[in-house]
Amino acid sequence: MSSSTITTDTASRTSGEHTQTSTYRAPNGARASGILSPTEAQSKEVEGTTVALLNANPDFALPDTTRFRDYKYSVGFKPDYIAQPEVGYGTGSQYGLSGFNGGTTIVLSDLLGNDQIALSASVYGQISDASVFGAYSNLSHRWQYTVGTYQQPIYLPQSNGTFQDNPDGSRTFSAQYTRYVLRNAFLTTQYPLNRFTRFEGGLQFNSIGRSLVELSQLCFTDGCNSLQIDNVASAPAYNFLQPSVAFISDNTLFGLTGPITGRRMRFSVSPAVGNLRWVEYLADYRRYDPVIFNTITIATRFLTSMSVGRDELSFPKYIGRPEYVRGYDSENFTGYECTGFIGGTGSCNTEQLVGSRVAVANAEIRFPIIRRFDLGGLPIGLPPVEGLFFYDAGLAWSTGQTVSLTKPANYDFKFQRYPLRSYGVGLRVNLFNLAILKWDYAKPLDAPGRKPNWTFSLGPSF
After folding, report:
1. Beta carbons within 8 Å of 424's beta carbon, 6+ residues apart
2. Nearest 5 degrees, angle CA 425-CA 353-CA 258?
3. Are 306 and 315 contacting, i.e. CB atoms less than 8 angstroms apart?
4. 368 to each of 58, 311, 429, how far by Cα in Å?
5. 3-class DSSP state for residue 125?
6. Burial profile 379-391: b = 16 or more Cβ within 10 angstroms, e = fewer
7. For residue 372, what pLDDT band results from cuts at 50, 70 and 90?
8. Do the beta carbons of residue 175 and residue 157 sit within 8 Å?
9. CB neighbours of 235 closer than 8 A, spacing ≥ 6?
10. Confidence band (pLDDT; 50, 70, 90) for 23?
11. Which three-class secondary structure state does DSSP give residue 67?
């Protein structure tokens, strides 16, 4: 029964010659609040009203709970998210992957969200070059687990390619690439101690296929044929197991472009056993201390990742990326050309940013520039913008190299390493909650003659 109050009194009251009352709108019309409906009048006359009496009264039409039936819950998956499918056909692509290409991603879950399935696939011309991912997560118990597998091909150029003149006037272009196919099967579990802290464990099987391929293309005066891809040489795959255990804690509160208060930490150990052997140690600790809450935040981070063992040089780490040490490499964010194992020459200008063991320290002062800016009467506005001042320091080294806190005399980066530092300013833009755009203007302190430079990247602040 809904009500529409004519006056604010809940009972009749006389004021002078006028009577004030409340009026209720009922299914059969309006009535004064002092007049009970037949159902209410009948229930008021019942002495000692009980649930049984109310159930027996047809005017109330309460359901009979004795006729309820219990059904065992069964998991039924329904789509939660489906990425826009893409289908196309390409010829003469950068890596010679001519043919049909396309892909999509779909995430399924049950009604309670305890069971989840994620599937993703991208095909580029041939099945051997397909990127495939599949995983199942069960969150219905305190012990939660995820099991899955994926395949990811990687092509890395060995050279820029060469042209050869043919007797018929045509030219043949050829270039060699190192081709890796990463295959992985994994199981991860986690046990939350509370809302902010948990333990994690896992086991991975990794297989890395290796081959050298050559891309060639025959060109005439009126155009070129499709690129051809040929296997030049193959090497035995690397197969190894990686168990892991980790402790994680995170009580941060996020703002528009990154955390604004709290702390985060992760400590993990992961040995590798098989064709490759080493032990991976990781320690990552971050703090966010608000000077003025939700306005100015001092963010600090210390991170170290160390590979120790026989094959620690197999997967070198690179600290010249924008999220680690800014200002030393504005063009390349991977450093793959600095090591022969993954297709490079083993010598490069940024080799001192590469090592099997790294340590990075960062400090930022973050502040808002634009929180909200509406464009007149239009239903849109400028995205939030935040600024920052930063100071970075990072060190990369490998077994056999000596480490010092300052640049040694007669410094040779092949045998000695010291921390590289930089400072600068940056901007963070929250692009309508779709992505975080980051611009950083960094001045390297340990690269004589190198000018400050801008770098652009995507992703939230550390």
Report:
1. 326, 327, 389, 390, 440, 441, 442, 443, 452
2. 40
3. no
4. 63, 46, 10
5. coil
6. eeeebbbbebebb
7. confident
8. yes
9. 210, 211
10. confident
11. helix
Q: Token pair of 327, please? A: 């200002």
**Two tokens, residue 285:** 């600790």
Strand partners, 119: 106, 134
Q: Which residue has the higher pLDDT, 93 or 404?
A: 404
- Predicted local confidence at residue 365, as pLDDT: 96
Residue 58 and residue 344: Cα distance in Å, rounded? 84
Cα separation, 14 vs 439, whole angstroms: 73
For 334, half-sphere exposure in the C-beta direction (CA atoms, 13 angstrom radius) is 9
Structure tokens at 216: 């060639």
Cα(7)–Cα(34) distance, integer angstroms: 13
Pair of tokens at residue 225: 């044929």
The whole-model pTM stands at 0.74
Helices then strands, counting H and E runs in the chain, come out as 2, 30
Residue 276: both structure tokens together:
């490759």
Q: Phi-psi category of 168—alpha, beta or left, where left has phi over 0 and alpha has psi -120 to 50?
A: alpha
Q: How far is CA 252 from CA 260, 288, 289, 323, in A?
A: 7, 8, 10, 19
**For 213-226, how does the pLDDT look when each residue is reduced to its tens digit (9 = 90+)?**
887 777 877 777 66
Alpha-carbon distance of 149 to 245, in angstroms, equals 19
Say which residues have a Cβ less than 8 Å from residue 239's Cβ, sequence separation at least 6: 205, 206, 207, 208, 274, 275
Burial classification of residue 121, based on how many CB atoms lie within 10 Å of its CB (0-12 exposed, 13-18 middle, 19 or more buried): middle
CA–CA separation, 171 and 167 (whole Å): 9
Task: Provide the pairing of β-strand 416-417 with 402-403.
Answer: parallel
Whole-angstrom Cα distance, residue 70 to residue 196? 36
The helix (H) or strand (E) run that includes residue 273 is strand 259-274
